[in-house]
Structures are given as C-alpha cells and as structure tokens.
C-alpha cells in the first residue's frame, strides 16, 4: 500500500483551518488538521514544500516509522509549526488505519472507558454580573463544567478573552482579525485583589456541583500565582489554568508547595519534553496539549500514558482554532483514556462548520459522544472548502499600563 498524493486546504468559516488529505493507491484517504492559530500558512507551507513530497510512495500503515522519520529526520526538532504539520500527517495516517480496520479509532486504542466525555464551555462577561448571566445560560444548557472569565473593575481594557460591552458574552470569541495585533492592558494588582472574591461569589451563586475552571493565561509571576492558588482554595476550582508561563517549570513547584488548587497547563506545549518532568514530579493535575500542536495522536497518546502513571488527567485544548478533525482525534482519545479529565469545547455546531466537516460526533448536555464510523469519523467537503479563503489574524498582545510588554 502506498501514499499517492496529498493536498492541503487553508480556510473555513471564521477560522483558517489547515486541512490535510492523504490519498492512497487503494482508494482510502485520511484527514488531518494542521491549524496553528493565526500562523496557519506556515505549517501549510511546510507540508506542501517538504513533507508531502517525502510522503509520496510511503506505506501509510507504518504511522510510527513515519512519525519518527518526520521528527528525528528534521534535524531541527519540534516547535509549534513543525509539530502541527506532523500532527496533521499522523492524524491522517490513523484515519487511514481505522478505515482499513473498519473500526473507530477508540477501538484501536483499547475501546471505550466511558460513554460520554465531559466538556467545558467558556462563560465570559464584561463584568461579574454579565458573567453570572453567561454561566446561568450554560448551566441551563446542561454543561457540567464551565470556564469563567470576567472584566476586572478599573482595568483599562477588557482583560483576557472578555467582551468590552455588557450583554455580548454568549459565544464571545476574541477578535484576532488583522496582521497587527490588538493591544490589551493588564494590571496584576487589580486582578489579584478582585478575582478570588469574584470566584467565591460564583461558587455561592451556583452551588457545589458545577465544575468551575479559571484561565490565568500566563499573566502571573510564580509567587503571585502561589498566592492566588492559595486564596481560591475554598472555591474548590476544577482547575486553575496556565498560572505562569511554563518555560520556567520551577514556578509550578512553587505553586504546588503553597496550594492544593488543581493546576492545568500545556496548551502551548509541543512535545513530551515540555511536560515530562512536570508530570513525573506530579506538579500538575491536568495536561492540556492538543493533537495538532503535540504532533498528532502517536505522541499525544504517549503523553496520556505517562500522565496516567502520575495521577495527571487529560484536559485537551479545544479552542475554536482546532478543526473538527483534531477535535475528533481528541474525542477518540477521550473515549479511551483511563485518565480522562475534561475536554475544552467551542468549535462544532455551526451549520457552516458541519457542512465543511460532516460527522456523527455529537454534543449533548455538556458531554461529547464519539462517532462509531471507521477512522476519525469526520469527512471533508472539498466543494464547501472552495467557498473559503485565507484571512490573516493575530493574537492580541498585552502591555502593562506603563507600556511594558507582558504575557498574552
Ligand atoms: O484556554 C484557551 O482556550 C485559551 O487560552 C486559548 O487557547 C487562547 O486564547 C489562544 O487562542
Ligand atoms: Mg487557556
């Protein structure tokens, strides 16, 4: 069996999804997602110019050897652009394997450990009152876990991923359009004074059962993060996410020494080498890589297995930048993983997205139910894809009030 061709598409409804289609001499094809949010053309170019010409003629069933060839064979290893490109190839090869076996991928991993996988929604608000309304809506829709973010009184602009205007919270997505990033202003002192109390009010209002998550988005220094984690212990958060930028892994040890608040990290990690020590030293509680940025199913499954040895549960990234293809890869891992925790979920459900990526995966009452179709269980409509073109975007940047650059 041989790979005869592969094609890359860039575009989609409100997102520049990078979709790889690998074609074989036996009529079976596989799909992969290489979407690197706001830098989408880079993995696409790497695929087109270097990787696809190498794939032609290879046996697609040897997904392990192909992954090793890509990763080790690059000489300059890893990084988000390369790993997203390898991720798309690896997903597509698993898709082909599943179709050849006539089994959904979760069966190849070891079958189902659960029927539905819990997801979390994003509730946001220009202020706390606005956020409360947004949470109430998600609770009503049946979500069991909700990430909560709100504007901070006195903060010069809306803080991370929070709408400026009241009432625009539902389905709010940060505006990334344009090459030049928008600038947000951050004030740690105001955040530290306000947010723990706001989280306590949310717990009081919604009771003990709803899982409350909060994303600090790399904004705090290690000592501040430890203080925050300690202060919110009575709230019993499901997790505190990205408390500090994880280049400094010792920060996670400092936080652990001071608090029992569960810590989630990893949405910007690319490999097992970014998190193996955090996992082995049991400094974190949830690992958040994505099937794209982690380089596909092959390496992500290894991370999940390592995490399982150390009581670290999964909480895969699921921002709207992930196409239904990588989300499907994660749905299959989530159905199988004995150490599944939760799945971030924002992407599916629009008619345009469903038309471009038809599938039987479904979300109901805050749970995802994985499709039983062979392989990934997602298709790609090339005629639909022709409607979309690439539009550049950029993550916002953050500055302190005096202009100093900070961490987004
Ligand atoms: O946890 C999340 O979903 C966010 O941190 C997003 O991934 C971030 O804004 C980049 O798009
Ligand atoms: Mg995050």
Automatic annotation (TrEMBL):
Pfam families: MR_MLE_C (PF13378), MR_MLE_N (PF02746). The gene is manD. NCBIfam families: ManoateDhtManD, PRK15072.1. Its EC number is 4.2.1.8. Keywords: Lyase. Signal peptide: none annotated. Residues 128-262 form the Mandelate racemase/muconate lactonizing enzyme C-terminal domain. It comes from Meridianimarinicoccus marinus. Belongs to the mandelate racemase/muconate lactonizing enzyme family. GalD subfamily. This is D-mannonate dehydratase ManD. GO terms for molecular function: mannonate dehydratase activity.
